[in-house]
UniProtKB/TrEMBL annotation:
Listed EC numbers: 5.4.99.25
Keywords linked to the UniProt accession: Isomerase, tRNA processing
InterPro entries hit by this protein: PsdUridine_synth_cat_dom_sf, PsdUridine_synth_N, tRNA_psdUridine_synth_TruB
Pfam family, one: TruB_N
Domain Pseudouridine synthase II N-terminal residue range list: 30-181
Reaction it catalyzes: uridine(55) in tRNA = pseudouridine(55) in tRNA
Enzyme class: isomerase
Record gene name: truB
UniProt name for this protein: tRNA pseudouridine synthase B
């Protein structure tokens, strides 16, 4: 049965693992028969969680949603690295981690990863350089040292950890637009004279909009939408 098309709304959707954010947009465009649609903030393919999908005239609100603070939960693991800083690629480095304590992690976070920070985005990211996505450079064998990836500013409002299962550490981060959680994980590992990769990432909140109120992609219903701003 063809679903009724609802224009000029926005939707909260839970992005599945391995889907790109564009995959979600394309799926919903077909299901809802939308003419104009876009998302307000990319999630990495292996990440899951909240995407805000804007439809029709509401696509003009995308920048507003993008500028809202975002909350992530996840798992990082000390002692190993991958080129993509997550499990998209194979391990390429092993590092000592027995010297790291929970207190050391919290001290590094407090002194170096709260407030204004500067990051080098992962080479496995969708940022464009000379008209080409960084991940296309990476997949063609180009390394980070071969190209000029510009440093970006970000803001970390809060960064909490639980190291009960160390070297696996669970975390919650509240951050600004443009923050790369994978870069945060990479830089935290380096600051502790080790390495680290991102094992799991979920976006749980964008501003006041919560994952708990989102729709499953495969059961998407265009009649279930948020109130128009």
């Amino acid at each position: 049965m063809e679903l009724e098309r609802i224009e000029n709304q926005f939707y909260l959707v839970d992005k599945p693992a391995t889907w790109t954010s564009f995959d979600v947009v394309r799926k919903l465009k077909n299901l809802g028969k939308f003419k104009k649609i876009g998302h307000a903030g990319t999630l990495d393919p292996l990440a899951t969680g909240l995407l805000i999908i804007c439809v029709g005239k509401h696509t003009k609100k995308i920048e507003y949603f993008q500028n809202l603070p975002k909350t992530y939960t996840g798992e990082l693991v000390f002692g190993k690295t991958t080129p993509s800083i997550d499990l998209e690629t194979e391990f390429d480095g092993h590092f000592p981690f027995d010297h790291i304590t929970k207190e050391m992690i919290e001290e590094r976070i407090s002194n170096h990863f709260i407030g204004e920070i500067r990051q080098v985005p992962p080479i496995y990211s969708a940022i464009k350089l000379d008209g080409k996505r960084l991940y296309n450079y990476a997949r063609s064998g180009v390394s980070e040292t071969d190209i000029d990836i510009k440093i970006r500013d970000a803001f970390i409002y809060d960064f909490k950890i639980d190291a009960a299962s160390f070297p696996l550490v669970t975390f919650e981060v509240v951050c600004s637009k443009g923050t790369y959680i994978r870069s945060l994980v990479r830089d935290l590992g380096i600051s502790l004279e080790s390495g680290a990769y991102l094992k799991k990432l979920i976006r749980t909140q964008i501003g006041d909009y919560c994952l708990t109120n989102s729709q499953d992609v495969m059961n998407f219903n265009p009649l279930i939408y948020e109130e128009v701003l």
